[in-house]
Amino acid sequence: MEKSKPALRISIMIMALMVLFPVNAFADSSWVWISEKRPFDILPWVAMGTILIEWLSIWLIPRTGHAFKVLGIVMVANAASFLLPYAFLEADLSWYGTFEHILDSGPHYIVSGVFLLLTLLVEMPIVYNVLKSKVQDKKKLQLTIIISNMITTAGVAIIERLITEGYW
What we know:
The protein is mainly α. The chain is built from six helices and two strands. The chain is globular and about 55 Å long. The mean pLDDT is 78.
């Protein structure tokens, strides 16, 4: 039975890699956005919904109290994570052109697993460190921050893909 474990692990790893790295060939074809909206166009609007959901979650679930303080902290943390992509929008990336040009020339949605990771890396320390003294259950605060960010990031990703469409 011990001998089958490496084979099982390798099989699971290969299946995971197949899902993570699909093989598609789009030779000599370009991505064309068919919707008027691009991912950066809707980001400010979904950010407002994200802030509302995260604020209510972090304020009510771990019972942080201080509604307006929590709102301010969530706004600052979200501004830091949502504005991060905008900081690179006009950046000239050598022969590729600007970051905005690169985003317009392919199916580059902003919100993804990497965006969730960056969001948690930016928002978690800000929100947690300011509010940890305001709650009795610090673990509940941590989980609320993580889960509310996961939910809002997934929701934004779905909205982004529904509103902004394109094809090869």
